[in-house]
Amino acid sequence: MKPEPLLEVENLAVALDGKTIIEHVSFSLEPQQVLAVIGPNGSGKTVLLKTLVGIIPPAHGVIRWRPGTRVGYLPQRFHVDHYLPMTVQEFLNLKSPAKGALHRTIAAASMGEKWLRRDLAHLSSGELQKVLLAWALLDEPQILLFDEPTENVDMVGQESIYKLLHRLQDTMRVALIIVSHDLHVVYRYANNVLCLNKQMVCYGEPEEKLTPDTLSKLYGDYAFFHHRHSNHQRDDHRYGHE
Fold first, then answer.
1. Can you give the pLDDT at residue 82?
2. Which family does it belong to (predicted)?
């Protein structure tokens, strides 16, 4: 029997200042599934995630969460004042976690105990992403939404973050919605892909939906060629010596 979806979206449209940003968006997400959202810059990916979590109201359409679903959201950017005198532990304690929850969470986020004493303002982009992930995990979410989790993170850090997300999907049984520009990540980790460029261009299994014609419509001929060539280079580098 097919499980009840955690999330169903039907014919969603979002407008800001009277201008339509996205429209005709429909998809669903089942427990433990991974949905990748791809599209060019300015296509409405961040707006979609903010609408799903209630930061931006929809213009019309339906967003239906399964009752009681706990949701975690990691934004694309999180500014930390470099003069802020706060350790990782002090930051995480702002959520007043239950006894033992903090240490379980930092372990789940692949952070050792020594992380708790580190200054929040002195973390790298990849390290800060892990702290934000731990923050989200304190709520024991059933679904996590990530807006480009590897932006400004080096290649080694990117691989570490995606492996961590994959492990969380398995060990904590969470579903994931990930905004990504990396088609290699989409093919490797996603059950379904949502192609977005102001409106839904495609939705379904990556191997079926990410055809050259679809990617050309999504990114344009030149951008698609460049994107595809870059991904082939990364694939060769990744697997060439295995």
1. 65
2. Belongs to the ABC transporter superfamily.
